[in-house]
Amino acid sequence: MDDLSALSRASVADLVGHDRAHRRIYTDPAIFALEQQHIFGRVWLYVAHESELREDGDFVASRMAGLPVLVTRDGEGMIHVLVNRCGHRGAAVCTEERGRSRAFRCPYHGWSYRNDGSLLGVPNRQTYPEGYDFTMPELRMKRVPRVATYRGFVFASLAADGPDLLSYLGAATTGIDDLMDRAPFGEIERAGGVMKYAVNANWKLPTENYNDFGHNTATHESSYSVAKRFTPQDRVEPYELRPVDIIRQNGAGSEVFISAGVYAFDWGHSYNGSHQTGAGGKAGGLIDVENAPEESGYAEYWRLLVARHGLEKAQNVVRKRRHLSVAWPTMGIQAFFCRVSVMHPIAVDRTEVHIMTFRLKGAPEVLFRNSVRYLTTVNSPGSIILPDDIEVFEQAQRNLAAPGAGDWVVFPNGVGAETAHTEAGQFEGLRGNGMSELTQRNQLRAWQHFMRDAAV
Amino acid sequence: MTMLRDAEALLYLEARLLDERRFRAWLDLYTDTCSYWLPARWGQPDPVDEVSLIYDDRMTLETRIGRLEHPRAHAQLPPSRTVHVVTNIRVAEQTDGGAVVQSVCQFNEFRTPDLTQLVGLQEHRLVATDAGLRIAAKRVDLLTCDQPLRSLQIPI
Prior knowledge:
heterodimer, A: alpha+beta, 4-stranded antiparallel β-sheet, 15 helices, globular, B: alpha+beta
């Protein structure tokens, strides 16, 4: 008898133990379908930023996991998230990435919709049955039931009920705060294009890598060891990041990673500390904002931050060192490089990742340009770093899909060594050393929570 | 016609050196202040205010090929096999011993288990140096530059 039939009677939640996961959760299309319903159909997912929806009528195409949606702003300034599907025969109502329009017309038979999704017009109405009810809800563009924003970030949930956005984000709000508090006027805008890459692997593999300090030394040896041949740039001028100084950071060494730490909270959320080191923390592109020379532009930036927050909080803001904050299951936020990534699970063995930069209003232009450079250096499929990650995800996916290659993957590092941690004085969580697989176990726990009542 | 012939010779040599994994010799075709750019958006105007698939200066290119040669570059074990096909070469602009040369590159890469094929428009800015014609800047606009690509390890 093969192992899969033995498991078919087990509940899906049993495919995850406290420090292990069965290969099936990465490879079984039936489980992927259940995840769409039980996880992505229930959680809050990031869909757009308010700066993309400044004026009434603005819209932007987005996705919720694999579901194509339009995020629109109607005539009253209200934001809607609409499934981009015509209620008539299912074609995409809008094929533009962004724009401004009060209505959308389906290119198939010309049905048109207001930007709140309601049906506006149907051509040749006289040839439809007399009295046909065009007000039936299924004929409109389906409206995603819950939409809410946190500090300009627009989230949506496909479930009509469940925890509200703030309750769901919990400690993950501090990742957004980390970014927003660096904006001297509390305002940011989407800018700098979109980076996209794809992995032929289950979405959980790159997600488990978000806060994974255990992999840098081995996976990225071929790039950081070469980057280390170049002398680190000690001078802060001209404040432009060099790719070699970014790449070098993956070779920071075990002690740096261990002390940076990892932090885990409810609902699968987490973050890791930063391994960006160097004189004044700037070799990794981190500027000593508090002592920057006038001509850098950072001195004025620092004054604006102090004016906004007061000295003590401003110091806390610029000294905060998180590598990546994770709003599970799909969002990553890296505050000091103004970067947000969103994971799109396409199939059980296919994941697309979009990474975006933001401009902090009132911050020096070089800060934004360094964000663009950081993203180009780290997150591109053409980067010197990322192909080595993609390779291990895809190798793992192939092995996990191979019957007889082993059924379980394990996450034992740091079990039992976690300590209690309270974030921002209000979010109870755990801290592990940087090598701990605490954040991965925490993601599996959230997965198990949502999948508990699912059955194959 | 001499510039066209010289440019053709240089672009064919570039393609061949990459296919033979002679990355150092490939980099020798570039000037010390060169740039190598793969935009992430069709018609992207600049690499500074918008993300790119690749935007390398000389130092970053050296890191890039250093990685490809590294014995523990695990995503190159086994190494990629490539065939660069360069065609439609024309001199778009001729200046002071140099030229702007436009061409098409069809890039074929095999790494178990995948054959990857990409195609794009290329533009080389060539300059005359004591060592002969060299590449001061190269831009490749991939047809699929704004689609989610998986892995681009070998220069195009």
